[in-house]
Each structure stands twice: as C-alpha cells, then as structure tokens.
Amino acid sequence: MTETAILPDERIGELASGFRDLRWSWAARDVPELAAALGWRVHVALQSTVWLDAGFGPTSGNVKIENGADAVMINAATCSSADPDATGDEAVRERRRLRDEFARVVGLVAERLGEPSARIHGEAPEVRWEGPATTVGVRSSEVRVTLFVAVNDYLKTWDEEA
Predict the structure, then answer these.
(1) pTM of the entire structure?
(2) CA distance readout (Å), 33 to 12, 37, 39, 71, 72
(3) 158: how many CB neighbours lie within 10 A of its CB?
(4) How far apart (Å, rounded) are the C-alpha atoms in residues 120 and 152?
(5) How many CB atoms lie within 10 A of CB 115?
(6) Which pLDDT band holds residue 3 (cuts at 50, 70, 90)?
(7) Residue 46: DSSP 8-state
(8) pLDDT confidence of 1, banded at 50, 70, 90?
(9) What does the pLDDT average to over 25-54?
(10) With left for phi above 0 and alpha for psi between -120 and 50, is residue 67 left, alpha or beta?
(11) CA gyration radius, the chain
C-alpha cells in the first residue's frame, strides 16, 4: 500500500492565492529564485522542464519551459503519488483517495479565489480560475492531484492541441 501525504489546507490556500497574485518575470533563468521563494528545491533543470521538490519528492513540482527561455506553467503536487501499479482493492482505494483529494483541493481553492471559470471533465478532470494574464487550476491524473498556474496563451494552445 502506498504511503499517503497531503498538503495542509492552509498551504493549499496560500499557494492558490500566491499563484493568482504571482508577479515574476516568467523567465526560465529565474526559476531557482521562484522555487526558493515558495520553499521548494530545484531537482534538475532540463531544456523544457525544471523539476522541483515541492514537498513530496524530487518530481513533485515542475515549471514547464518553452523555447528554452520562457516559463509557461508551474505545477505543484498536493498529495503523494498514487501507485500506478496498484490492482484490486488497492487500486480502488487509490482512485478514491485521488478523487477525494481533487474535491478537497478544488473546494479550498474556491474558498480563496471564488467560483471557477471552467470545469473540464474527463479522465484528467480540471477546474480553472482564469485571470487577466494567468490561470490557476487544479488537475487530477491517474497518479496525482496538482495545483497549477499557467500563462493564458499557453493554456489556450494546450487546450487546442488536446
């Protein structure tokens, strides 16, 4: 069975508000300073992604980079990863845990940011709060729930390619 951990409610609220109010260069070269300000550590910097330890291990956060220079999305796990190899009852528990975590995080972010601007259903559900230049969101995958902030133009392109 996978050991589970979650970010405390207050930290999720702080991250949501911080992501909404984030003012920084969105330059890849400035990711180490951003990570330090958030209390995270840079694990490895690649051309298209800077992997961060956001509290749940060396890949629990990341910053997506375009053109080797422009940051376009910041992701932070809100819980420990589910076991992708789980089967039977354990797989059911893991799916339930992620579903509950997604609902918890969406509720906490809504308390801070108000009603969401979009709800995307499907295998990887997502809820978003769009601002003038960036969007804060919560996404669930088969292994993790993530809180993110992304540049609106990047999300538009991402949505069109999906």
Answers:
(1) 0.95
(2) 20, 6, 10, 13, 16
(3) 13
(4) 16
(5) 6
(6) low
(7) -
(8) very low
(9) 96
(10) left
(11) 15
- In the three-class reduction of DSSP (H, G, I as helix; E, B as strand; rest coil), residue 36 is classed as helix
Tokens of 95: 């799916």
Residues forming beta bridges with residue 6, ordered by sequence position: 79
DSSP string spanning 92-147? Answer: HHHHHHHHHHHHHHHHHHHHHH-S-SEEE-SSS-EEEEE-SSEEEEEEE-SS-EEE
- CA 25 to chain CA mean position, Å: 19
CA atoms within 13 A on the CB side of 65: 18
Which pLDDT tens digit goes with each residue over 85-124?
999 999 999 999 999 999 999 999 999 999 999 999 999 9
Residue 115: both structure tokens together: 């009603």
